[in-house]
Write a structure and sequence with these properties.
The protein has helices spanning 14-20, 28-36, 44-51, 56-72. The chain is an all-alpha fold. It has one domain (7-72). The radius of gyration is 12 Å and the shape is globular.
């Protein structure tokens, strides 16, 4: 997986996310494609680095996206 610092700019759904949210983050669809590209497990900080997420607002927005997924694991 390339470590392109602005990988989220390649998100085909970025326009939809920008319309829906004040602080948009990569779409779920794009996130899944990025995760599928890894050959080894990665932690949240590594994923954020690859997606180019840096601000506190982006971290918070991303956490809101991930909470429903973590609930599905239970």
């Amino acid at each position: 997986m390339s470590k392109d610092k602005h990988l989220h700019s390649n998100d085909p759904f970025s326009g939809r996310e920008a319309e829906k949210y004040e602080n948009p983050v990569p779409s779920r669809e794009h996130l899944l494609e990025v995760i599928k590209g890894f050959t080894t497990p990665v932690n949240r900080d590594q994923l954020f680095e690859v997606l180019g997420l840096k601000s506190d607002e982006e971290y918070e927005a991303y956490a809101a996206v991930c909470v429903p997924w973590s609930a599905m694991d239970n």
